């Protein structure tokens, strides 16, 4: 019992000494606002890649029962309406058509034969009586049924011939629109075995911009976010638009960190596409690469967005952060902007820049003039307390 009391007393003394040291000489760890803003989403003025894509996409299917003789286009080609895309094997189509026409002739001949048989049977029936007449009647009715069946087969075969003639006439498939070939799928399936259209064409003149955001930026761009697009070759060329869709249902894999469980997934993180509807598409080219950034009206102030946990509030309602200045900690008043509940981040429009360093609020550590350090503290193992002589653990 005496040992437990001694241990408790020693722990209390150590804690007291530790708090005294923290409140006086201990350096307070400060973190880069630029890093914190990047962890929280998209920093003010941060640029990311965008690509001009078509809003309207046309998918060209092929007849799975026909062989392709030649494909005239490849991914990335620009095509005009009416331009040849691919052609079916006309030799096979012609053979099929010739066979169907021969079968149609045979059916028409059988119809004439049935009609001739019926006429002969009817004449012969007039020359007999009694039981023989009844037998002729039954034979005539049977032949009439065969005639009806042959006539139905002729109609079916005529439809087949018409379709084959149309296919032969349209053996060369052309583009229905002006656009750019996005993809040519020779095998017709993706990596997961799902069916794909044979040729996909993006229509020219109906543009929007596609961008991507990562796991850490989720919630930073939402539907309705205003986006500014900037030419990579001429910064004076800009376009503005509004995010119409953030597609969380169809992520792609990109570099980064992920903790999904498997070894491969640990080395990559998901990227989510978003699409911007533009106010004007003048001067844009399908497939053009652009810089994107969150749009800010002229004269409107903006600042970094950081975790709301770094924001402190005084009794009078003013807001502040603990910021580093000349190696010392200072209580700096800030003006807040928009709060993002999806990421629990707070925009700071005045009083803080990306070049600043700030400390996480801690009543025992943070005070005016406290020394600061940018070296992340390393957690140390607690030392084992010595045993009193004669005591057994």
Overall number of strands: 23
- Provide a count of the helices: 5
Structural class: alpha+beta
Distance between the termini: 11 Å
Q: The biggest beta sheet, please?
A: 7 strands, antiparallel
Unreliable runs, pLDDT <50, ≥5 residues? Answer: 1-24, 255-267
Radius of gyration: 40 Å
Task: Describe the model.
There is one protein chain. The protein is elongated, with a radius of gyration of 40 Å. The model is unreliable at 1-24 and 255-267 (pLDDT under 50). With 393 residues, it is an alpha+beta fold. A hairpin with a 5-residue loop joins strand 18 (312-313) and strand 19. The protein has 5 helices and 23 strands. The strands form 5 sheets. Strands 2, 17, 18, 19, 20, 21 and 22 form a 7-stranded antiparallel beta sheet that branches. The chain has a 6-stranded antiparallel beta barrel with strand order 3-11-15-13-12-16. Strands 4-10-9-6 form a 4-stranded antiparallel beta sheet, with no helix packed on it.
Task: Note the main attributes of this structure.
elongated, six-stranded antiparallel beta barrel, single chain, 393 residues, 5 helices, seven-stranded antiparallel sheet, disordered N terminus
In short:
This protein is of the alpha+beta class and 393 residues long. The protein has helices spanning 2-22, 33-40, 90-125, 131-169, 263-266, and strands at 28-29, 31-32, 48-54, 57-60, 68-71, 78-79, 84-88, 172-174, 179-184, 199-203, 207-214, 226-231, 238-246, 252-255, 268-278, 289-294, 305-307, 312-313, 319-325, 328-340, 345-350, 357-359, 372-373.
